Target: Amino acid permease
Amino acid sequence: MEKDNQTLKRTMSSRHITMMALGGAIGAGLFKGSSAAIDMAGPSVLIAYLLGGIILLFVMQGLAEMAVRNSEARTFRDLVQSILGKYPAYFLDWIYWKMWVLNIAAESVVAAIFIQYWLPDYPIWILALSVSVLVTAINLLSVKVFAETEYWLALVKICVIVVFIIAGLILLLVSFGQHTAVGFSNLTEHGGFFPNGSMGLIAAMLVVIYSYGGTEIIGITLAETKNPEKVVPKAVRSTLVRIVTFYLLPFFIIVSLIPWNEVNGVPESPFVMVFKMIGIPGADHIMNAVVLLAIISSMNSGLYGSSRVLYTQAVDGRVPKIFAHLSKRKVPVYAILMCTLALYVGVIISLYAGSKTFEFLMGSLGYTVLFIWLIIAIAHLKSRKKQSEKTSAYVVKWFPYTTWIAIIALSAILIGIIFTTSIIVTGITLAIYIFITLTYVYKGRYHTN
Model:
């Protein structure tokens, strides 16, 4: 293989990676996971998403600073290894890969659920297979084609969320025709603002962390981003403002318009329920289509992220070299095909578990996002000592306080989640982490990279 065929091409701009981060985070967690989060916490889910957004801000600021200091980095491992050592970097790489391959499998099933809104006679596995083939094809094209596709998919769903917010506020505040302004009584009725107490709020944090997961994909785009030292901080700032906005305002509208105890157990997304209330003919179909595009967009980002982790592992000799092969379009074709296997595993699981496949996988994914954020935060905490002699174009202003807040909050959430999550989900996740650790002990420690 020629050396220059081994190098990824820097073709992504700030607008591409900003939208990719949004594409990764505004997906099934928002449109489908919202039902589960509201069912757990009631109206207090707003506090859960606010806390999650603040933690995300502090973690992403640290990631941006480390990326600027190490402009040669290609992925998380390059940022973390020089600071924390080989094992944390190895563990982070593989749990991140595991997160995305499981996530795209789960979201292929969610996409199928939304397609069933129009095609109720088709089984979920056939619909999931169709979506999986489409996402695979998009990723096998050039990086520029992928980035443009992701940009427009993310832009469409953002525009519709804005319409959703405007329409929701009108329904809440304005009376017209046969409609009477709903107001905000649903926030305190039906058991109060905290209907399930503090434990409900803690349980919802797992869904919250899972929902926000994907934003850190910015750390995977480093090898294909023009001027990452300038682009990454800008993308972090703009992405965080939009994510918090696109989560908090929609959730505020949903729990205000619809009694929280009527959201779960309904086949369609709460977003589709609200659009039905608008009364515009076909509004629910439009929203369902947008939700479907959002899921495909998130799958698109997930397949990108997981394939690039596998590619860099292959370049460094940690997995077979075939996964480092690039096509003429500079796409790691075999790495992509390997990661797409997860999509088809999801299809097979859906043959037996059906629509419950997503709920089963979401808990494990929440744990993984939480550990990814913890490792990034810990690495940032120690990065100043390792690289204090270097000047940086981007510096976290309130360091180390913001980073410590993130670490303490994530640790507290982890403890709470352990006590509120199914022991089966916790056990399966622990088994996966032990397996990753054993592979490091067996093989990873013998590599110098």
Remarks:
- The radius of gyration is 21 Å.
- Residues 1-5, 8-12 have pLDDT under 50 and may be disordered.
- The longest helix spans residues 283-315.
